[in-house]
């Protein structure tokens, strides 16, 4: 094994591929951090316009769920609330 091969293969691990993978993960983490800050700013802007950020978050979460699944969850919620005297 040449010196170049031994520096790229350490303990059977392709060092260059590992370094590239770690670099990519770090870049994506930075992008995620920037996106999170942008989302936080949008919620703050919505609040300054008089909207309730908690309700907006709930709507965003609900829009990710299929209608039938959401309806089933709402029915269960109503049933459970009735069972404990909240309805």
What's this model, at a glance?
The protein has four helices and two strands; from the N terminus they run αββααα. The chain is mainly alpha-helical. The protein has one domain (3-83).
Description:
This protein is mostly helical. The chain has one domain (3-83). 78% of the residues lie in helices and 5% in strands. The protein has four helices and two strands. It has helices at residues 3-8, 15-48, 53-63, 67-83, and strands at 9-10, 13-14. Strands 1-2 form a two-stranded antiparallel ribbon. The longest helix is centred in the middle third of the chain and has 34 residues, at 15-48. The chain is elongated. The chain starts with a helix and ends with a helix. 0% of the residues are buried. The mean pLDDT is 91.
């Amino acid at each position: 094994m040449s010196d170049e091969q031994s520096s790229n293969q350490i303990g059977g691990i392709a060092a260059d591929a590992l370094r590239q993978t770690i670099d990519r993960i770090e870049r994506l983490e930075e992008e995620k951090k920037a996106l999170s800050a942008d989302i936080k700013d949008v919620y703050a802007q919505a609040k300054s316009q008089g909207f309730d950020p908690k309700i907006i978050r709930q709507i965003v979460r609900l829009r990710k769920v299929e209608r039938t699944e959401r309806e089933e969850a709402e029915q269960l919620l109503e049933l459970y609330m009735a069972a404990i005297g909240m309805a």
